[in-house]
Design a protein that fits this description.
single chain; about 160 residues; alpha/beta; five-stranded mixed sheet; 4 helices; about 15% strand
């Protein structure tokens, strides 16, 4: 009798993989971010990626990073974590965890805390030394929200699309 398969992916690999796949939907030419919010039963509650609000054509708004507020993407793009919260079919995300491809900014951190997220698992921390990241960590610690960097196994997952 054959035993069970041993090369299956872990829950962390699965959910971070879903977040990375969601990030591939982003039209941002510089930074693609995805988020996947999961409940205590390892059930995906919602997914989001960074992009423009519904009804705003990504052909009609700027994607520039430099210039005045009106002329850059920062005034218009909704971050992946906030999109995941707004896309959720249920209002109750208490005690859930979020897998996100980039450590959350202070704005998304506020929203995650307000929704009751209890754990943040992030991949990249490229803005670690910024004031935004420091403020986010300060709020997460004050609110008792655990945050840990995802530890990649290095496993390659090939998706034929």
């Amino acid at each position: 009798m054959a035993g069970k398969r041993e090369d299956y992916i872990t829950w962390d690999e699965y959910f971070m993989g879903v977040a990375k796949l969601a990030a591939m939907r982003s039209k941002d030419p510089n930074t693609q971010v995805g988020a996947c919010i999961v409940n205590e039963d390892n059930r995906i509650m919602t997914i989001g990626y960074n992009g423009l609000p519904k009804g705003c054509s990504d052909d009609d708004f700027p994607w520039e990073r430099e210039g005045g507020t009106y002329d850059t993407k920062y005034a218009y793009v909704c971050h992946a974590e906030l999109n995941a919260i707004l896309n959720c079919g249920t209002a109750d995300l208490r005690n859930n965890r979020v897998y996100v491809t980039l450590f959350p900014c202070e704005g998304c951190t506020k929203a995650l805390i307000q929704k009751g997220i209890k754990e943040v698992i992030y991949d990249s921390d490229k803005y670690h030394d910024t004031e935004s990241a420091a403020a986010a960590r300060r709020m997460l610690e004050a609110a008792g929200v655990k945050y840990t960097q995802y530890r990649s196994t290095g496993r390659q997952i090939d998706l034929q699309v």
